[in-house]
Structures are given as C-alpha cells and as structure tokens.
Amino acid sequence: MKLIEHYVGGKIISGKSNRKGKVFNPATGEQQSEVRLGSKNDLDQTVEVAKKASETWSLKPSLQRARIIFKFKDLIEKNSDELTKLIVSEHGKVYEDARGSLTRGLEVVEFACGIPHLLKGEFSENVGTDVDSWSMRQPLGVVAGITPFNFPAMVPMWMFPIAIACGNTFILKPSEKDPSCAIKLAQLFTEAGLPDGVFNVVNGDKEVVDAILINKDVKAISFVGSTPIAKYIYENSAKYEKRVQALGGAKNHLVVMPDCDLDGAVNGLMGAAYGSAGERCMAQSVAVAVGDIGDELVSKLSKKAEALKVGPGMDKTSEMGPLVTKEHLEKVKSYIDLGVKEGAKLLVDGRKIKLQGYENGFYIGGCLFDHVNKDMIIYKEEIFGPVLSVVRVKTFEEAAKLINEHEYGNGVSIYTRDGDLGRTFANKIQVGMVGINVPIPVPMAFHSFGGWKRSLFGDSGMHGMEGIKFYTKLKTVTSRWPSGIRSNPEFIMPTMK
Ligand code: NAD
To answer: What separation in Å is there between the alpha carbon of 410 and the centre of ligand 1?
Structure first.
C-alpha cells in the first residue's frame, strides 16, 4: 500500500516513527494509502533544517523571493488538474468545488507575488532636529501551520505563501485524513526554485502538534480546525511564548427577510448549506426565516434538498460528494437522530440514501430540519455535514439577537432588498465576515479571513495585510548623523521643544 511520507529539505524523507494512519477514498469507502504519523524527533529535526534555511532565505531580497513565488503560481496552474484530483480522491468533494477551492488558494499565492510592495515600511523625516525615523517588518524565523481536513490545499495556502514571501521558513502539519495535496504543493515549490528547507511538510497527529508547540525555535503557529483544538493551540502557544492565530469552528446563519428575492436566497442557501457536503467553516447551516416567509422558504428548500444529486466527486453530475470518513458520517447521522429527539421537524432525511455501486462510500443526502430553536443541541453545535436547520423568528431584531448570542461568529448573511437594513446588519452584527445578498462571504486574498468569538483565538485573521503583519516583526529605527560637536549627556526624557 502507498505510504505518504514527510517532505523535508526539498525531498521526501522517511520518518523514524512506526505509527501510520489510514487514508480513505470516501467515494468508495476503501483505504487507498497510509500516512506516516511523525514523532517529536521528526519534528525537531525538521525545525533544525528550517532554521538553517532561514539564515539565507530571510536575507534574500524580497523581489527574488517574489520571482520564485511567481514560478510557483505558474506550476500550480499547470498542475491544477492533478492537485484537484488529489483533493477529490482523499476529501471526497466534487471536482469543480475542489478546483474552486484550489483557485482560492492560488489567489493568496498571487497576492504574495506583490511582497516587495507589501513589505514597504514607513518613514518620517525630522521627527526631531536632524533626526529621522523609519519602521520595517522583518521575518520571525521558523513558523508552523496546522490545518484541517476540509480544505487540504486552500487552508495551507492561506498561510505558507505569505509566511515564506515575508522571509520565514515554514513547517506544515496537514490533516492526516488528506495529506497528499500538501506534499504535491511542496514538490511544486521546490520545482519553482525554492531553496531546500524553506517549505517542509511533517505528517502526523497530536504528537507532531505537541512537538511544534514546545519547540522553542518555532516562533509562530497558524492553526485552523475545530474550536476545542484551536483553544488548546492558543493557550499552549501563549505558554510557550509563541505568536498565534487559531481559527476554530462555526455555526453560520443566513437571515431571510420577507422582502428578499426568495429564489435567490433559496439558491444561495442550497449551495452554502450543501456544497462540499456542509464540510465548510463558512457553510450556512442555519436559515433564519423572518416574519411570514417561513412556509414558502421551507417549501422551496424541501423540493430542492430532495432533488440534490449525491455521488462520487469525480462524477460530473454530482452536486454533493461523500463525507470524509465513516466516523464523521456516523457523527453527522447521530446529530440527525438527536434533532428528531429534540423535537425539530425533519422534512428531508438524507440518511436513507443508497448509491448503487458505491454502497461502502461515506454518503449522506441533504437533510432539512424545520422548527429548530435556540435551545436545541443541533442549533448550538457545529454538525459539519449537509444539515440545514430552519429557525423561525418574528422580527429582524430577534434574528440579530439570536446570532449575536451564539458562541460562534465566523460568517453570516442577510438576504433583503432594504439597503438601510442591510447596512444596519453589517454595522451591528457580532460576526467577523458578513454577506449582504451573498451566501458565503469569504474574503478575497487581498482582504483577510477571520471570525469573531469562539471562531478565532488570537488577534489576526489569515492572509491579506493581517497575514503580512502576523508573519513579521515590526522594527522602528530612529537615527541621527551628527557632524559637529557631540552634545552633553541628557538625563531627562527627550521631547520636542
Ligand atoms: P480538527 O480540529 O480535528 O483538526 C485540525 C488539526 O488539528 C489537524 O491537523 C489535526 O491533526 C490536529 N488535531 C486534531 N486533534 C488534535 C489534538 N487533540 N491535539 C492536537 N492536534 C490535534 O479539525 P478537522 O476535523 O480537521 O476540521 C474541521 C474543523 O475545522 C471544523 O470545526 C471547521 O469549522 C474548522 N475549520 C475552520 C475554519 C476557519 O477558518 N475558522 C476553516 C476550515 C475548517
């Protein structure tokens, strides 16, 4: 069976650990490969390699770094079909969706190509008499990324292109459920001319993560995953004196106002709730029906959810692929059982689905609950599957209160024709990423991605200028070049006279 190894110092290397994980093809349910689960020793050795590489990479002019990143961009484009197929084969999502996620990652690489401009500092002449002051941003050294299964290309690409463009060296610990894409990206970066040791991949699980946390030469951690692990990373990064950004889970609401374009809202909800089988941190898993729109909304949604075409990701007619693993499928099904027990009305039950020829695949059809309320567990917790809950409220204020009181604050949307209401919503809602008549408000690469509340621990979001700041240290220089007689010592705080 194929064994997926680590990528360190510009080549694939065998780890010392004997522990291995299983990688499945979710479409068939068969195990397709094994992945080496690295040890603390593997991680520590990789840090040494990255530290050595950092000595020269950090000094390379940013324009030269940008040229390598530009070649990397070209290679991703040339290999996009292979990368997309890797995503489909290990994650399960449908081909076009996988391709779209790769493109969103590529956009961060494009952003990073502008690094000479992005790293320009500030300069002030004559902050005192004959005294000038300027600020610059310098790399941190060795930094690490720990990523989730649901975007095996895009989420790592939120991190490493910018970190590396800023002059850092990078160690990626991808999800052990779908690790192949990370290795392919590392190989392409080497092919683009990236010096060995600047971008490394160490496969593994908690053991590697804990080794990253305690290694004193890892200066910063970017994490994306579930909230309990994000909190663990955040707390331990502080304990071990590292800079950290830890993005967690979500429960996103889409508010449907009575005046909206209802067909637009229904189509938006269908893609946002069931796209990628709901395994997106920006999935819209709660539809908030305001006023008297509920019955019509639910009637339109039911018809479409019943008609959802579920199938293997490589089948061009599939709208939704399988879930990532059997365990995850069981977890999602258990939430549906729970919703029924809690008294929500299950209008569309995807548990019944059977696919001929793919009986062992990890499939579930789209599920639709009506009359969900804020006290139900299926409302409070992230299900991370194709399950849409409809909550009915009387007013916009009630909808906003519901959202503001939820523990998560990743993404939110409103569908309305009322511009004043849309503006009030954007202004007042306690959520990091807001859409107005846009179902999934994922910011572009040159803006920054990040939620609020328990969807993000730390101060900065991913990519855009937040990314540049996260991966660099600010240094401010104050200088004077006296040519005459030196002044006497001054024992008081210098101020402008
Ligand atoms: P996860 O938290 O299980 O795993 C994420 C990473 O943490 C993986 O690399 C994994 O190996 C590691 N990990 C898992 N358990 C660990 C432990 N006990 N100690 C140390 N490390 C551990 O998340 P997942 O299931 O891979 O991904 C789905 C989650 O990610 C969802 O909650 C989703 O909302 C979230 N997510 C959030 C965003 C965002 O931007 N906020 C984006 C994508 C996914």
So the answer is: 15
